[in-house]
From TrEMBL:
It comes from Anaeramoeba flamelloides. SUPFAM superfamilies: POZ domain, RCC1/BLIP-II. Residues 504-591 form the BTB domain. Pfam families: BTB, RCC1. RCC repeats lie at residues 167-214. This is Btk-binding protein-related. Transmembrane segments: none annotated.
Length: 627
C-alpha cells in the first residue's frame, strides 16, 4: 500500500499547527496534514476537548503507542504507551479520551484543565481533580467487578462500555437528557448498568442519545428526542428509559441488518447492510421533521457504505467512492454558506486515484463539532487474507489435539472442566511461525492444560499475527520458548517461506512459449511442454479465490494433487513475479524484467485469480507505469 495521507477540515485555529505551511490552509474543504511523523503507522485519529480553547487529538500508532496533540498556536505533542497491552480502539469525548485494549481493560486520558464537576463528570474516577493525570489511567471499576469490556463509545460528556459478561452495557458521565437510560437526569461519574444482553452500541458527538441493539436483534433508544429523532412511539422531548425503536418502514428482517447508526443533534441516520439510508428527525430542512424512519430519497439509487456524523453534519461515502455531505455546514467546514444543504464533496486526488479499489474500504472519518478528519488507515491485505482463511477452517492438513480447559476466563489458571479437543491447522504455517516441528508442539500440548480460548488466541497469532495478552496465552508462548510479545514479523515469515524452496509442495504448470509442439511425438510426456513454478499450496488457498474454487471441486482421487496447469496465458516471467506478490504483497521488478510485458499481463490478474483485495496489485504495478 502506498503511504497514507490524512486530511482535515474545520476551524483554522484548532488545526493549523498540523500544517508545515500554514499559508496553505483552506477555510473550506480538506487540508492535507503534513506535520505528523510516521503517518503510515496511524490506525485511528479521534478528537477531544472540542468546546474548549485548545482542543486535543489522540492518534493511535502501532500496537500500544499513542500520540496526544494539544492544538493551538503551537502544537504540544506527547508520546504515550499502554504498557503490556495491545490497543483495540480509542474514542474521544469532550474532556476525556477512552482507550480499549484487547484484554478487555479501559483506560482514560484527560487534560485535567477543568475542575467544575459538570464539565469533568465524564472522567470516571472518584478521586479525579484538575491535576489527576496526563497519562492513560486504567478504569479499575471493570476489573474490580470482573467485567471484560469489548466495545466503547463516547458522546457529549457521556461514555458507554459494552461488556462480554452477559452483554452488560454500562454508562457514565452527563445525563442531562436521560441518555444513561436510568429514568432520571442525575449525572453519574462512575459507570452504572443500563441494560443486559446488548450486542452493539451507538452514540453521537453531540447527540445526547444512546442507541443499542440487543442479542434478540431489537433496537432500543433513549435520551434527547428533539424533532422525534429517536423513532420510538414516545413524543416527549426527553426519553428517560430505553424504548424500542419502530423499524416498520425499513424493509429489513430485524436490527441485525443494520450496519451503522449515526445520531446527530436533530436527526438519526440508519445505514442498512444493503447500503440504504433511512432517517428520523430532520436532515435538510429544519422546518420539516420526520417522526418515524423513512428512506432518504436523495440516496434511493445510491449504495452507501459508510456514514459519519457530528452535531449537525453528516458525511456519506458511496460504493463509487463519492463523498456526500448533508447538514448545517458547521463553521463552514465544506463550503462558504452556513445553511442546510446536500452537496457532493470532491475527494483529494489521493483518494480519487484509489477509486474502484478495495483499499478504500478502510477509509474512515472522525467528526468533531468544529472539524473532521478523513484518512485511509493501514489496511494490511496479507493479514486480512489470512484472517479470513483461518476463520474459514477449511483446507487444513493436520490436527493438534489435547486436554483443554473449557473455562471462558482462565486468568487464574483454575481448571474446572476439561475435555479432549482437536484443533485443525496447517502444518507448514505453525512450524514456520513457532520454529518447532509439529510433533514438538503436540508434545507441549500433551504436557500442559491450556484453555480452549487461549489456544484459539495463540492460533490467531500463528495465522495473522493478532496477539492476545491474556495470562494463559502468554503461558503457551512460554511453553513453546517464544518471547512475549513475540519478535517474529508476519511479513518477514512469509518472505522466509517464499525463499524456502524445499518446503514448496505444489507446482503451477506454465506453457513454455519457446517449446514448439506441432511436430512432436504424440507419445511424449505432455508435462514436458510446461515449466514448473513451485509454490506453497497454502499461499494459493489463502490469497486466491480461483484456486480455492479449483481445490473445492476436486474429487476424492484428486485431493492429493500436487500440480495444476495455469490457463491464464501469461508468461512464465509474469507469473513468477505474481507468485512472489502473493507471499509479499509487493511487485518487485529487476533490470532483467520486461516491465511493459509484466504490467500488461498482470493488469487483469486481480479479476482472473479472484484476489480478495484488488487495489494493492494495481497500485504496485502503477509504480512502474509512472517510472
Amino acid at each position: 500500500m502506498q503511504k497514507p495521507e490524512i486530511y482535515f477540515g474545520g476551524h483554522k485555529r484548532y488545526l493549523e499547527c498540523l500544517l508545515l505551511n500554514k499559508e496553505e490552509y483552506k477555510t473550506q474543504g480538506m487540508n492535507k496534514i503534513t506535520n505528523i511523523k510516521e503517518i503510515e503507522k496511524v490506525k485511528k485519529i479521534t478528537l477531544g476537548d472540542v468546546f474548549v480553547e485548545n482542543p486535543h487529538i489522540l492518534i493511535w500508532k502501532g500496537v500500544n503507542k499513542l500520540e496526544l496533540i494539544k492544538l493551538g498556536e503551537e502544537a504540544q505533542k506527547t508520546t504515550l504507551t499502554i504498557e503490556n497491552e495491545e490497543i483495540k480502539d480509542i474514542q474521544g469525548g469532550q474532556q476525556n479520551f477512552l482507550i480499549l485494549t484487547k484484554s478487555g481493560k479501559v483506560y482514560s486520558l484527560a487534560d485535567g484543565k477543568k475542575n467544575n464537576i459538570d464539565e469533568t463528570i465524564e472522567i470516571p474516577f472518584e478521586d479525579y481533580n484538575q491535576s489527576s493525570f496526563k497519562t492513560p489511567r486504567c478504569i479499575t471499576f471493570f476489573e474490580k467487578n470482573n467485567l471484560l469490556v469489548y466495545a466503547i463509545a463516547s458522546g457529549n460528556y457521556t461514555n458507554y462500555f459494552l461488556c462480554k459478561n452477559e452483554g452488560k452495557l454500562y454508562g457514565s458521565g452527563w445525563n442531562s437528557d436521560g441518555q444513561l437510560g436510568k429514568g432520571t437526569l442525575n449525572n453519574q461519574r462512575m459507570p452504572v448498568l443500563i441494560s443486559k444482553n446488548v450486542q452493539r452500541v451507538f452514540t453521537g458527538t453531540d447527540s445526547n442519545n444512546l442507541f443499542y441493539i440487543t442479542q434478540d436483534n431489537e433496537l432500543f433508544a433513549c435520551g434527547l428526542n428533539s424533532l422525534k429523532k429517536l423513532g420510538t412511539n414516545n413524543t416527549n422531548e426527553i426519553v428517560l428509559l430505553p424504548e424500542k425503536v419502530i423499524l416498520k418502514n425499513i424493509p429489513i428482517k430485524d436490527a441485525s441488518e443494520i450496519l451503522d447508526i449515526q445520531p446527530s443533534y436533530n436527526s438519526t441516520i440508519i445505514l442498512t447492510n444493503e447500503g440504504k439510508i433511512y432517517f428520523c428527525g430532520e436532515l435538510t430542512n429544519p422546518q420539516i421533521s420526520q417522526p418515524t424512519f423513512k428512506e432518504f430519497e436523495s440516496f434511493k439509487n445510491i449504495k452507501i457504505i459508510k456514514i459519519f456524523s457530528n452535531a449537525n453534519d453528516t458525511f456519506l461515502l458511496s460504493e463509487d467512492y463519492l463523498l456526500y455531505f448533508v447538514g448545517l455546514n458547521n463553521n463552514n467546514l465544506i463550503f462558504e454558506h452556513h445553511a442546510f444543504s446536500l452537496k457532493t464533496i470532491e475527494l483529494p486526488k489521493y483518494f480519487q486515484d484509489l477509486k474502484g479499489s478495495n483499499l478504500l474500504s478502510s477509509l474512515t472519518m472522525n467528526c468533531g463539532y468544529h472539524s473532521f478528519f478523513l484518512f485511509l488507515s493501514d489496511n494490511n491485505i496479507l493479514k486480512n487474507d489470512f484472517k479470513k482463511f483461518f476463520e474459514s477452517k477449511k483446507y487444513c492438513d493436520s490436527n493438534i489435539s489435547g486436554l483443554v480447559s473449557n473455562n471462558q476466563n482462565n486468568e487464574k489458571n483454575e481448571i474446572n472442566e476439561k475435555s479432549e479437543t482437536s484443533f485443525p491447522i496447517h502444518k507448514i504455517l505453525i512450524e514456520l511461525r513457532t520454529g518447532l516441528k509439529l510433533d514438538e508442539i503436540q508434545k507441549i500440548i500433551n504436557q500442559n492444560i491450556f484453555s480452549q480460548e487461549a489456544f484459539n488466541e495463540f492460533l490467531k497469532w500463528v495465522y495473522y499475527n493478532e496477539i492476545s495478552s491474556s495470562v494463559t496465552t502468554k503461558q503457551i508462548f512460554g511453553a513453546c520458548n517464544l518471547m512475549f510479545p513475540p519478535e517474529q514479523n508476519f511479513e518477514n515469515d512469509l518472505l522466509k517461506l517464499f525463499n524456502d524452496e524445499d518446503s514448496k509442495d505444489f507446482n503451477l504448470l506454465v506453457k513454455d512459449d519457446e517449446y514448439e509442439d506441432e511436430d512432436e511425438d504424440e507419445d511424449e510426456d505432455e508435462d514436458e511442454e510446461y515449466e514448473k513454478i513451485p509454490v506453497h499450496k497454502l499461499i494459493l488457498l489463502a490469497r486466491s479465490g480461483l484456486f480455492r474454487e479449483l481445490f473445492e471441486n476436486l474429487n476424492e482421487n484428486e485431493k492429493n494433487l500436487n500440480q495444476i496447469k495455469d490457463y491464464s496465458g501469461k508468461s512464465i516471467e509474469s507469473l513468477e513475479i505474481f507468485i512472489k506478490y502473493l507471499y509479499t504483497n509487493k511487485i518487485e521488478l529487476t533490470a532483467d524484467n520486461d516491465p511493459e510485458l509484466i504490467i500488461e499481463e498482470l493488469k487483469d490478474a486481480v479479476e482472473y485469480y479472484q484476489l480478495n483485495e484488488s487495489s494493492n496489485l494495481t497500485h504496485e504495478l502503477n509504480k512502474y507505469v509512472k517510472k
